[in-house]
Amino acid sequence: MVLPVQPDVVDNTAHIVQVALTPIFLLTGVGTLLNVFNTRLARVSDHNQHLGELLRADPDDKTRRWLQRHVARLQLRLWALDAAVALTAIAGAATCGTAFILFLGSLRDRSVVSWLVISFGVALVCVVLALVAFVADTVLAWHGLRREGPLPRGPG
């Protein structure tokens, strides 16, 4: 025997799934951003380590100053990328919280609007701030290339 399906139940369920997709799409973007930021962070860390090796090789004063300027710029880039990664991770957590609150609200049938606004708002603000930190890293990278030239390469 087939039970009749109430249109309201189907409509409500479909609406919950539609609304839940928005944070999930944001979460996909957040994951991609984390991958980009971590890859860039690894490259900058490798450059920083290489410059440390070059400085330990006891270069002449002019080269030492040039290398130290590169190191100082890389330290700023590392800080900006650390901030981008941390903010993106917070955005991911807030996005997951948003999806969870949506489902919890649908199960309990309570008003969770304020919690949704807060969690999704935190996610969006953190993504924007992470992108600002990433732009800061990009500007520092381009500024360093124009002012000091490319980083010295290692042997091989």
Per-chain topology:
Layout: H1 7-56, H2 61-108, H3 113-148
Can you characterise this structure?
The protein is an all-alpha fold. It has one domain. It has three helices and no strands. The chain has helices at 7-56, 61-108, 113-148. α1 (7-56) runs antiparallel to α2 and α2 runs antiparallel to α3 (113-148). The longest helix is centred in the N-terminal third of the chain and has 50 residues, at 7-56. The mean pLDDT is 81.
Short description:
The protein is mostly helical and 156 residues long.
Fraction of residues in helices?
over 70%
Mean pLDDT: 81
Large-scale geometry:
rod-shaped
Please work out how many helical segments DSSP would assign: 3
Classify the secondary structure makeup into a structural class: mainly alpha
N→C terminal distance: 75 Å
Number of domains: 1
Would you count the extended β strands for me? 0
Biggest beta sheet summary: none
**C-alpha Rg, in Å?**
24 Å
Beta content? under 5%
Low-confidence stretches: none
Element string (H = helix, E = strand) = HHH
